[in-house]
């Protein structure tokens, strides 16, 4: 697999200059791991009532941490629970059990506490057209957050600065424009500016380039990386595209049916994936280290009927091929539930991986 990352950002008017204003540069990866998480979920569970009196286990025990100045990709197929995790991290969903902490403090769910938190953690949606009111100008769209939070001083300068940081320059050129007058990439930059205007410390981006043309995806991804590097922002990027994660993330958490099944650095996960589900996802990338593409059979089970044992076992290529049987873990795959991955360290949740690790001498 090639390790080339996306090129430097280019905005609507050519290469983008350095971000204006003071910058709090992101710490290097080793320093990020040594400090307290910017945002974390502890034993997070979110359940919903489903028709027929059933219960959907949308998030079923998740431990995840976002380190200061880090971009964490939350990846998996549609319906795996990653968007519910993102919404819960933002306080838009209340967990059934477990806690969300921001800089070590548990998130409060009172109106005042949530309003204060949302100055620090902002959401970027995947559909900029749906996120913007067609009757509001760009200025009003970006200024909305300031007005909600009662920030009235220097509004014009704050809006102009946010638009400039998002790559829309000169900012004043866009003040009176309406969303329908902008390109898809420009609309997404307005959405990002609306998040930046409150000077948050965390951004959660839900499929931030899914609705954009391929020609502008790289620009938006490069913009998010520059915001991380120049402003010290931390970001969770929800995606089904591991190629996107390869380009932008420092770490990847792979989700399947409400659980994280593998988490680690982007280089480790995408060059040496261990979980059979992750291997299948990585196998379809160009120059994949896994070899030929692996096609998973069937669809992910319904969250109201999570299989026993390993929840991936009905679709697992290692079980279907006899590899799990040869390793002596086939029965465990079908019957023994795996523990929730712990917080704060790289790990893989798989009976086969555990068997392989047990077979390797400690000094190997």
TrEMBL record:
The segment(s) forming the ABC transporter domain are: 39-282
> What InterPro entries has UniProt attached to this entry?
AAA+_ATPase, ABC_transp_ATP-bind, ABC_transporter-like_ATP-bd, ABC_transporter-like_CS, Oligopep_ABC_C, P-loop_NTPase
The signal peptide here is none
Q: Name one Pfam family in it.
A: oligo_HPY
What keywords appear on the UniProt entry?
ATP-binding, Nucleotide-binding, Transport
* Database matches in PANTHER family: D,D-DIPEPTIDE TRANSPORT ATP-BINDING PROTEIN DDPF-RELATED, TRANSPORT ATP-BINDING PROTEIN
Protein name, UniProt field: ABC transporter ATP-binding protein
Q: Which organism is it from?
A: Streptomyces bohaiensis
